[in-house]
Amino acid sequence: MSEKLPKTAVTPASHTTPPAKFSHGVRKGNILQVAGQVGFLPAEPGRAPEPAGPTLREQTLQTLANVHAVLVEGGATWEDVVMIRVYLTDTGHFAEFNELYNAYFADLTEAPSARTTVYVGLPAGLLVEIDALAVLG
Amino acid sequence: MSEKLPKTAVTPASHTTPPAKFSHGVRKGNILQVAGQVGFLPAEPGRAPEPAGPTLREQTLQTLANVHAVLVEGGATWEDVVMIRVYLTDTGHFAEFNELYNAYFADLTEAPSARTTVYVGLPAGLLVEIDALAVLG
Amino acid sequence: MSEKLPKTAVTPASHTTPPAKFSHGVRKGNILQVAGQVGFLPAEPGRAPEPAGPTLREQTLQTLANVHAVLVEGGATWEDVVMIRVYLTDTGHFAEFNELYNAYFADLTEAPSARTTVYVGLPAGLLVEIDALAVLG
């Protein structure tokens, strides 16, 4: 390997500006890492980031859509994802989250990604955060 | 790389069915990701998933055994693991966990994996969750 | 790939001994994983690990320095990092942490790493833990 692998920031046009100097996604070689996404609606000029709604359902679907947008922008699909990390704030949300998750991924044809789910603190109003690791090729 | 890399679900026969559409492990290219494992005993038909016991010791040893089963099923060993993520629920468990961890890995001959340990919430009755990333080859 | 990939522990001389059998960093193939680092000062013989200070600022800067030392020892730089995982203990620290983070990374020339930030428990006195995944080459 004498050529330096290029490293590319992956920034869907729909996404809000990250609150610090990090990328929503980054690709190097055949690795695509998606940063922790939350349920923010697509960015609108002049509007502060705003969750899709107060419910687990609204936030989970928007969060998955946001992860997906980064995957697509980086040349990947859910089929390429090997790990999904799920951060919930309440163990009481596990069953409903899994229902939403299963419905969302019902049409996957490849092996489903691995997953870890833990319960953490998140900024006020946010119920779920998700990041993902994809291997392309 | 003109051939598409195969992606394979890794599912030890001993493992309980995941509570959602994810794989206990997944391999793509030379990456093997093990999903978050907890201290559930080997699956028995008709029995709900059940921890190996209420203690940190019982759950840690079973959790490590469960991670190991996924590694082996995926063609890897602990020697291939580059990252182990440990989720405990109580900072008071750190010293005992490390004793168990060190004893378990006493015979490693390659460089030990990196590790991150943080304290989170887990479903009631579970004291430890562990996932792992292996690079094969 | 008929040759077995070497796996190497990465241990900066400045680092305190890990509290268990894990490596501060480990490299296999083109993957370099940095273990969770905290704000411990460089090791001194006979002194127990000690944070750089009680403040978020002191601990964040020391933690980033500790991650960086592992990267350098492993043949990488921040430019090679694709994922930074940040564990804070208080959502009230997010804004100050981001200021410190942005100042620290002001001179990055490649695409910034992806990042996930969640709020967890850490051992008493520690306010921040950070790990990192780099892809070399």
Protein model, in words:
Three copies of one chain form a homotrimer. Chain A is of the alpha+beta class and 137 residues long. The first copy, chain A, has two helices and six strands. In chain A, strands 1-2-3-6-4-5 form a six-stranded mixed beta sheet, with helices on one face. In chain A, α1 packs across α2. The radius of gyration of chain A is 15 Å and the shape is globular. The two termini of chain A are 17 Å apart. Chains in contact: A-B, A-C, B-C. At the B-C interface, β4, α2 and β5 of B face β1, β2, β3 and β6 of C.
What's a quick, concise take on this entry?
The structure is a homotrimer of 137-residue chains. Chain A is α+β, with helices and mostly antiparallel strands and 137 residues long. Helix content of chain A is 21%, strand content 27%.
